[in-house]
Give the backbone structure.
Amino acid sequence: MLSGFNDELNRLLELGSVKIKVLAIKDGFLLPDEKILVFTDYETFNKPYRTKISSKQKIKRSRVKEFASLKIGDFIVHENFGIGKYVGLETIKIGMVEQETIKILYAEGGIVYLNMNYLSLIKKYSSGDKAPPRLTTLGSNEWRSAKKKVKSKIKEAARDLIKLYAQRKSAVGFAFSSDTVWQKELEASFLYEPTPDQAKVTDEVKSDMEFENPMDRLVCGDVGFGKTEVAIRAAFKAVSDGKQVGMLVPTTILAEQHFNTFKDRLSQFPVKVAVLSRFAGKAKQTEIIKELAAGNVDIVIGTHRLLSKDIKFKDLGLLVIDEEHRFGVMAKEKLRQIRVNVDTLTLTATPIPRTLNLSLLGARDLSIIATPPPNRQPIYTKVETFDIVKIREWIIDEVKRSGQIYFVHDRVQSIEKIATYLQKHIPQIRILVAHGQMKPAALEKVIYGFMNKEADVLISTKIIESGLDIPNVNTIIINRADRFGLAELHQLRGRVGRSDRQAYSYFLVPSLTTITKKAVKRLQAIEESTELGGGFNLAMRDLEIRGAGNLLGTEQSGSIDTVGFDMYVKLLDEAVAELKESEFKDVFKDLPKHLQRSDPTIDTYFEVGIPKSFMPDQSDRLSFYQALFSMIKIEELDEIKDELEDKFGKFPVIVERLILTAILRFYVSFAQFERVVITRKKLILVLPKGDNEEFYKNKFAILMEHIVKNYSKEIKFVQIQRCYETRI
C-alpha cells in the first residue's frame, strides 16, 4: 500500500502538482496491512499538542528605537569632541553632494556637523539627576584629559574584578557527567515546546556543569519566559550525579510555588524535594534539616532560612538563586562563602546593575532568554492618577470576561481601608486581602482561595511580586507606583499576561507633578518597555536612571557624570580589553576571541540618505540612520526594510542607495577596513593602522593575494602595497 502511495506522490511532485509541507502530527495511527503502529511524542509523554516553534521565530520589535528619544536640546557625547548639545539635522553640501548631518553645538559657539557615517561616535548623555553637564570647548585638551582620567580610575576597579574572575576560573569544582537517559526523559516530558532561547540556555548551563571549574552563570529572561524549567533541568542533572541542590528564593509564596512545580516535574523520578519556609511548622523544619544533613533530601527550596547556621548539606553540588537583587548585604556575603567551589545558577528578570555589569564585563557568564512563549501578547501598560471611576471600570471589564484582578497596595496599616473603599464603590465584586504580617496558615488560605476563584480581586502588598502564577489574573492595578523600584514594577507587571489573553497593567500615582524626577523616569521606562522580552533592556535603562554609581563601586559615579553613561561603558570595555591583552593574558588565553570589527565610513560621489519628503520627522530619520549603520547581523536588514516600507511606503532611489551603502559598511567592518571611498572611476580602500596585529598577521596576506590575482594590471598599486608590507 505504502509503495503505491509513494509512486503516485513522486509522479505528482515531478509534475509540480503538489508541494510538501512538513508539520507535526497530533495523533498516532495504525496501518494493519503494513503492520505499523505509530505513536506521537505527545501521546508517549502525555503532553498537550502544540505546534513546534521555529528556531527562526523572533520577538517582533522595532529595530529603530535607540535614538527615538533624542530631542533637540538634549546633551550628546561625541567620542572625539566631548559633550555637546544636539540642535537637529541639517543638510549641507560636501563637494558636489548634499548630505544630511547631525548638528552639535559646543562651548564658545563651536559647531560640529556629523556625517551619518559617524553615528556610532555619538551617544545620548545620561547620568544621575544632577546639574546639566558643562559643554566641551573644541580645540582644547580638556576632553582628552577627562577621558584619560576616567579610564585610569576604571582600570583600577576593573583590575580587582578580573582578579576575582581569575580566582574562580582557577578553582576546582565538580565536573558533572554527560546527560543520562533519565535526563533526556525529563526534558522530553516538558509540557510545552522549549523556545529556541530556552533550549540554547539549557545547553549552556549543562555544558558549564560538565566543566571542572565552578559554574557562575546568570540567566536573564523576562517573567514567564521559562527560567524555572532551565533550573529544574540543571537541578536534576546535579541530583543524577548524587549531589544535592539548594534553591534560594526571596519570598515564602515563591518557595511554595517552586516546590509544587519541582515536585510535579520530578514526580516520575526517585528525587526527594523539600521546602523550607514559614509555611512549614517548626517540627517539619527540624525534620527537613535533619534529612538534608543526612543526604536524604535531594533538592531543598527555601527563603533566607536556607542561609541559617543550622542548615548543613551533606554534599551540595548546585546552588540556584532566584532574583538575587532581593537579598540583603548579609545574605549575599553568606552566599559568597557557600559558592566558592559550588556551581551557581542565578535567575533574574531584571538584573540589578552591578550583577548585570559583572556579566557584561565577562566576570560572569551571561545567558539571555529573549524568545517569548507562543501566543504571548505584550501587556498594555498605562500610568494614571488615582480615580475610582476608572478603577471601577477596569475591574468590572476584567470580571466580565471571567478574569481576576491584583490590586497592589504596599502599606499594611491602610490595606483594610483600601479594601473597604473598593468594596463600597464596587459592591458586586468579591475581595480577599493578603499581606506579609498575616499568620502563615491564614495567608496560605487566602492565596489558595484566590487561586480557586473564590474572589475577583486580591488586594495585597508586594508579596505577590515573585511567585504567584495564576493565568486567570490578567489585570493588575498598582497603587502609589512611584514608591516602587523599576525591577519591582517590572516583576509586579509580570504577574499578569501569562496566558494568550490580553493583559492590562495600571500604575497609579497621586499626581505626576508631585512625585520625584527619578520616579517619573522609572514610570516612563516601564510604560515604554512593553515589548515581550524587555526585562534586559529595562535593566540597562535602570543603570542610567540610578546614575550607575554602583557599577564598580560608588566612587565611580563622579566618573560617569564626567563623560556620561554610554561613554563610561565604552571606556570600561576598552579598559577591560587592554587588561585582558596585557596583565591578564594568561587568564583569558583559553577563551574564544571575539571577531574583531572596524567602524568604517563609506564616502560616495552620489547622494545617499532619507529625504524629508519621504520621512518628514527628524527623530524618525535619525532612528532609521542609526538602525541601518549599527546592524549586528545582516538578517536585521529585512526587519528594518519591512518597518521602513510599512510606515512610509515604497523607497525612493536615494534610500535604496543608503541601504546598499549600509550593507557595504556591514561587510567592510568584518574586513576591518577603516574607510571606503567610492569615486566615479576608483574604489579606494583605507586599511587599518599598522598596530592592528590581528589584521596584518592573518588578513593582509589574503587581501594582497586577491589583488595580485585579480588586478595584476594595477602594478603601481601592488608595488606600493608590497613596500608597505616589507615595512611592516
In short: The chain has four domains: 2-44, 171-367, 380-531, 601-727.
